[in-house]
Amino acid sequence: MAQAQSPSSIEGDILVQLAYSAAKTFVTNYYTDLQAARTKLKDYYTPTAQVSWNGTNLTGGIADVEKLHTEMPPATYEVQCFDAQPLTPNGRGQCSILLVTNGYVKFGNEKDAPSRGFSETITLEPDTSTPPKFLISTQSTRFVF
After folding, report:
1. Which of 28, 89, 105, 132 has the greatest CB tally within 10 Å of its CB?
2. How sure is the predictor about 1, in pLDDT bands with cuts at 50, 70 and 90?
């Protein structure tokens, strides 16, 4: 005989499903724009986003993030997997999402450019001006050697 789930368990399942759905959309759009439309990337970040790029903290806010993306050589990203977990709801029916992505990146246009593994940990915050959009509030990118 199946046990009935408690309301809090059902709510938690719904939050996990919503976090996964929002993260899947985010991952698809963000990595596509990271490869082909970097001028759009500033729209993915909160104005006070905290970003760490391979151990280097970018302290100049969105201007540093924009500079990083425009000065970076062309790159091809292949996301192998991602995991998304809802964080504590904010009392307005919204919650942040903890997103972890892993995959490979090739820098440069050469066909034989070496692939590097990468891992990113991102906190997505709900964008109150454009629900149900999410923005990056923290991001830590690491290359795996």
Report:
1. 105
2. very low
